Amino acid sequence: MTAETRSHNRMQRHDLAAPPLRDRTRRRLAKGLVAAACLLPLMATASGAERKTVQTPEATIVYHAQGRGPLIMVIASTGRGTEEFGLLAERLVARGYRVLRPEPRGIGGSVGPMDGVSFHDFAKDFAAVIQQEGGTPTIVAGHAYGNWIARVIATDFPALTRGVVLLAAGARTWPKELSDAITMINDPKSTEAQRLAGLRLGFFAAGNDPRPWLDGWYEDVTKSQRAARQRTRQADWWAGGRAPLLDLQGGADPFRPVASRLELKEEFADRVTVKIVEGASHALPAEKPMETADAVADWADRLPR
Questions:
Q1: Model's pTM, two decimal places?
Q2: Number of domains composing the chain
Q3: pLDDT tens-digit profile of 132-172?
Q4: 3-class DSSP string for the chain
């Protein structure tokens, strides 16, 4: 065997033992691109919204605005801010809407009296956001507790309201253990295991991860909002003015048992559209942001402008 042949054989064995450097480089590059693609939605959420402020006689309200088109405002649930609506907002923007996410008093830089206030005060805060954005009729979407504020906006500011979306709105009544779970989750003395159990009981359907909601609770905001509910008559918000209503429910939401599915439809008839999102509970827009956004946009697309 010649030296040239021996050298050639050694090169072949080396090629079989390890992939060429350029192939390994390609694979590493591909993995990097996949990782970057996974982060793109989060990056877009972080960079796509503009932080803005509106001043009212009683409060300073910080809100996030993104996109172009008809306005949709999204209001957060009890004791929570709007950060978790990032993917929902991105999807609505992609569907041709401008999305506003106001932070309630006590969260994200929004400040104002927390005691002695009612739903009407919170409605004024968010109506000021709509007015600053041009004052055109807006679809007001409220998640859980936020649906009450959305309905008060529709009642107190009908000229600013194009429609109301109830995102996982509770039934007229629900078991006390669900309210107790919210109190426990807000309590800093509760253990992680207790809070996870409460989140699974009241907010997340089986198979959905509740851990992102271990954080993001504001106990003082929860107390203020609950006190505001006691200062507001149910008759002030129940009907949601005269605006069209989308009653968007999680299929596994214990705050909205099957027997209550049509209670608003039966009372307000053609004003109400009912839609169920399966595989979701009371944390509906966080559990199923894309499905929630598409349901809202599909309904909004059909409303008169």
A1: 0.84
A2: 2
A3: 999 999 999 999 999 999 999 999 999 999 999 999 999 99
A4: CCHHHHHHHHHHHHHHHCCCHHHHHHHHHHHHHHHHHHHHHHHHHHHHCEEEEEECCCCEEEEEEECCCCEEEEECCCCCCCHHHHHHHHHHHHCCCEEEEECCCCCCCCECCCCCCCHHHHHHHHHHHHHHCCCCCEEEEEECHHHHHHHHHHHHCHHHEEEEEEECCCCCCCCHHHHHHHHHHHCCCCCHHHHHHHHHHHCCCCCCCCHHHHCCCCHHHHHHHHHHHHCCCHHHCCCCCCCCEEEEEECCCCCCCHHHCCHHHHHHHHHEEEEEECCCCCCHHHHCHHHHHHHHHHHHHCCCC
44 within a domain of the structure (yes/no): no
Statement to judge: residues 101 and 24 lie in one domain: no
Q: Does residue 54 fall inside a structural domain?
A: yes
Residue 102 and residue 141 in one domain: yes
Instruction: Judge if 226 and 153 occupy the same domain.
Output: yes
Task: Tell me the average pLDDT across 51-75.
Answer: 98
Residues 15, 109, single domain; the answer is no
Domain that holds residue 29: 3-38
